[in-house]
Amino acid sequence: MSEWKNGKCVVYEDRHGNTRCGVCCAALFCDDNGDMPDICPCCGAPLDYSIYGPAE
């Protein structure tokens, strides 16, 4: 399941509500400031969170 948009891998939510990398399926967690990673900590793929943005 690897969907790419604007040169970045689209993240997805698993059935438990965890955000995951679309390339390696690694779980993505926010840091101490509440920011999500821009690059997957496991495979290094650039991540696209646009599905969580406001509706266009």
Write up this protein:
The chain is an all-beta fold. Helix content is 0%, strand content 20%. It has strands spanning 4-5, 8-10, 12-13, 19-20, 47-48. The strands form 2 sheets. A 3-stranded mixed sheet has the order 1-2-5, with no helix packed on it. A hairpin with a 5-residue loop joins strand 3 and strand 4. The N and C termini lie far apart (24 Å). The mean pLDDT is 90.
Q: H/E element string?
A: EEEEE
Number of helices: 0
Q: What proportion strand?
A: 15-25%
Oligomeric grouping of the chains: single chain
The separation of the N and C termini measures 24 Å
Strand order of the largest sheet: 1-2-5
Helix content: under 10%
Notable features of this structure?
single chain; 56 residues; mainly beta; three-stranded mixed β-sheet; two-stranded antiparallel sheet; 0% helix
Write the topology of this structure:
Layout: E1 4-5, E2 8-10, E3 12-13, E4 19-20, E5 47-48
Parallel strand pairs: 2-5
Antiparallel strand pairs: 1-2, 3-4
Summarize the structure.
The protein has no helices and five strands.
